[in-house]
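agent: user wants the structure for Ligase-associated DNA damage response exonuclease from Sphingomonas kyungheensis. delegating to structure tool.
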Amino acid sequence: MARLGDWLEPHPHGIYVRPADAWIDPSEPEARALVTHGHTDHARGGHGAVWATPETLAIMDARYGEQAGHPVAYGESLTMGEVEVGFVPAGHVLGSAQIVLDYRGERVVVSGDYKRRADPTCTPFEPVACDVFVTEATFALPVFRHPDTGDEIDKLIVRLHANPDRCVLVGAYALGKAQRVIAELRARGHEAPIYLHGALQRLCDLYVEHGVRLGELRAVAGASKAEMAGHVVMCPPGALNDRWSRRLPDPITAMASGWMRVRQRARQKNVELPLILSDHADWDELTETLAEIAPREVWVTHGREEALVHWCQQRQIKARALALVGFEDEDD
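agent: tool returned. relaying tokens verbatim.
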């Protein structure tokens, strides 16, 4: 008897869909790549041809130069060999998608990275019934339960208003997290200009071009300390304690990341104001998603695979871990 999903071949650098002769999120150049989203542990340049959402292709163009891209909008499908391929929203970042594969009566959903929280910068996750669900496990431990997003943003606003002679310097990854923090601030009524490190400008502009409202953004370059006092300043995490930050007015150092739940990580990065804000599902959201979709099998990758596999097995859901290579910190 054939094994469920035996037409898929997990390799350390990606998942090969044999009857389509295509790879999902390969970390090495391949002739045909299906890409879930634009983070560097899932998308890279150099492929012969790329199928992804229009937004993901735009992100890849911005990061790697023009791609040999084939845009597939949410809800559209195409046939590759004997496989019908579709893209549905993953709720992770702009353009992020789950890849739905139908082949000879079996359906496999490769979710990429996903979250279930509301996010003003991307389309919400869409559950799809399937035989095999390939899930991430970045925060797949019961200790990871993300707090309310609004409460975390309010912590930032309160600290800002309490220190009008200083700025709050927020470290956030360039794709997804920076734009989400800005959009969440706007949603909480913060309409003041927000200052950007130059490394964030290009992708913020791309989000705006795709209809995401970010309000007034200004470059740190050329701004005086007096101008930035009482304002939010955004930068990549690597610039938080860099010489670059010396130009700022006595910054209160913050970082937006799901890993800020781990106090040691905050201390290591000298973060004064940890903001627990993740673009990945937490433990409850992962397990609730599996219960909702109710697949026959769960394949687990990118993170704490063992705990999620154990949770599935306790509920008589067949599960296994895939040994894929990932760099989880890029998009936490």
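agent: one observation worth passing along. The first strand starts at residue 8 and ends at 11.
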